[in-house]
Amino acid sequence: MRDGGLYSLHMTDPYGYDVQISGVANNALYLGLGYTGLKTVSAGLGGLIVSANPVFTAVLAALFLGEQLTLRKVAGLLLGIVGVGFIVWHRMSVGTDSLHGILFTFASLGSIVLGTILFKVLAPQGSLWIGNGVQNLSAGIVLLPFAMSFSSLDDIVPSAHLLGAFAFLVLGGSILAYRLWFHLLRVCGATAASAYHFLMPPLAMLFAWMVLGEHVEFRDLLGIVPVALGIYLVTRPARILQQKSRP
Known about the structure:
single chain, mainly alpha, globular, disordered N terminus
């Protein structure tokens, strides 16, 4: 039994410090750094870098959450690193994306990994809908001074496209997507839940090509192959392999 201090606060307030800290990492830092990186990085590469989330999450989950890190998972994570590294190196070698934007995107990756581990360690209780709202509010409060210091309201030009994009990011990206993400973290392990981020590279490149007209080279597609194989190895339940090995 634990009593007093932060644990008592956690038990009496399901939307207290644990939810607010998680919101800063998962929303303020992850999205803030990610959107900053996207100013000089293509959407396809941005999605690909963030898809390396399972690699770092699996290592930290093994250290802090006690999740098993098998040789099969390690092989899958290494394949993911190879795929991501191949495409990042190719994009930088041809001058498609800037190092400045890539660094911001990697910082965004670190934030979502930290937020994932914090959510599992702190294990916030209560409704995911309300908790998600508290996290977004906490992130907004943290980002407000930076927004007022480095941006201007004069830069906002109201239009139908702006309102549509804003509605999609709020409803789809900040409400629905995070509601599903936190649900996965509750019902799955951190490693298994984060492994779904490996789906981002093909989807990001596909939509970047369809919506933004970004150029996709054959070498970029080659990098997706080890990433796809890596997610297969990481997420495939060990019990399936054990059943197949039985006579």
